[in-house]
Model the fold of this input.
Amino acid sequence: MNFTGNQRKMYLLALALLIVAIALACTWSLWRKPSSAPSGEASPEPTVGRTGEADSSATPAPDSAVSGAAEAPEATEQTTASTIVYYQDNDGYLVPVMCTVPMEDGIAKATLGMMVKSAENDMQAARLGLRTVLPEGTTIDLDIADGKARIDLSEEVLNLSDAAAEANMVSAVVQTLTEFDTVEEVEFLIGGQKLESLPHGTDISGTFTRGDINLESSEDAAGAEAAQSVTLYFPSEAGTVVVPVTRMVYSSPDINTAVLELTKGPSATGSLENVLPAGCGLIDVTVEDGTAKLNFTKEFADIALNSDGGRMALKALVLTCTQFDGISAVEILVEGEPFDPGEGTLSVPTFANVADTIVYDYIQTQSAMILDE
Done:
């Protein structure tokens, strides 16, 4: 084959770039090979069994401070792990998201590090339509032993804007740490010191256990002691995530109550979306062989008119139902007749929100909207 001078230069340039690409690929492959864990430390496995996901039998060792660590297992090909990060949306709702992170010792501390405001973390949160909860520059020291996580945050957390931001930060840290099976309670230090409260009055004097998330305010303060809590899931206003909400009820906190509360919709003071279409009522709920059968009025069929075909609303409905022991599947009836909302829409998700899925769903939704225009 004959080349002109310019063609020969382009050919040699392309060949050189190909060689460089192959060399980089080989280097990357060698670099990614995992090494054995240090002797005497347990390989840190994140827990996925407390919030809106399928149970897992894995027992994590989030930090090497846990006493009595088992001997390290033989190295495997696994170089990443799943962990639960708590972000917040633009209206202050805390949102748990399952993220994939590099496998490392001290994964609990690494997880908290993803919640600190920085260019990289904020970009990751923005891809999900969410925001970080810890102020920029916050450093974290963490010690875990005998079921207690003792976390020492630097003094940057004293500069939060208001009491709501303080409460969100505390709740997000507690929820994140108690996702790990080795953590039952959390104690806060600020700058190495034990404080009674944060500048805007948020109490951090005691120890914290896993509690209610996104608790709706109760107008009936007098009857609050008689109320019980139930967790409901609603789609966010942006339609990219589902948000767990704690609502106080004055009846048994079971599946019947939960689905009935979903028909009432989210709090009027919030920005969350309804799960059920306008005018849709609940006829009854029955449970047979682990399947919850939900019978709605004819308006339920309008769920298909949602911009995403009702996918996020159905996901919120399934998560609300399958949080109860013994319920592993959901079926929909409309006026007593079986209703098929579409393939896969009633499957039980691995977790309430998965980072990669959020990004993919957002792209799919936007593409569908563009094509429909």
About this structure: Residues 25-49, 54-61, 64-73 have pLDDT under 50 and may be disordered. The chain has seven helices and twelve strands. Residues 5-31 form the longest helix (27 residues).
